[in-house]
Amino acid sequence: MMGEKIIVVGSSTGGTEALKIFLSGMPERCPAILISQHMPELFTKSFAERLDSLCAMQVKEAEHHEDIVAGRVYLAPGHSHLLLERVAGKYRTALSREPPVNRHRPSVEVLFHSAAKQLGANAIGVMLTGMGKDGATAMLEMKQAGAYNFAQDEASCVVFGMPREAIALGAVDEIVPLPRMAERVLARLALAR
């Protein structure tokens, strides 16, 4: 798994629909995707199941200490931050009940910070629609660590808060309309092979 790309996604308001559109465009054989979507605890499991039924990739609610494998999507549960760990040459998930960051748990900031630290240039960041600024600072850390980052464009966002903040910090390499996000990420992955 080391050296393989991993995609990390942050979303909030409008994110459930945006994730459906983005993930529907991703093929079954695709690098692993980790998602931090602001969502109450009671809804993340059923949301993951619904996405799983709509997408070629296998979508599940992330559990603590799962090996991260290609072709799978790991959605942060509503009660925990989602992070990555490196153990014996492999990546795995880690869940944390640490206090909310930017008023959120799961927080995009925590996931992206973890990606910057553990993955460096093997990360691809995607910031989708959302209110506030959660994840922007850590997305800049990702870019500085060598990651390539995408943000959803204003016209296709329900709320342009999170993408706008990341763009304003200079954390974003490409600004893309939601309907083309999967296509652009896949094009980037093809370049990186």
From TrEMBL:
It is an enzyme of class 3 (hydrolase). Its EC number is 3.1.1.61. GO terms for biological process: chemotaxis. GO terms for molecular function: phosphorelay response regulator activity; protein-glutamate methylesterase activity. Pfam families: CheB_methylest. Keywords: Hydrolase. CDD domains: CheB_Rec (cd16432). Residues 1-192 form the CheB-type methylesterase domain. One of its GO terms (cellular component) is cytoplasm. The keyword Zinc does not apply. The keyword Hydrolase applies. It catalyses: [protein]-L-glutamate 5-O-methyl ester + H2O = L-glutamyl-[protein] + methanol + H(+). Coiled coil: none annotated. This is protein-glutamate methylesterase.
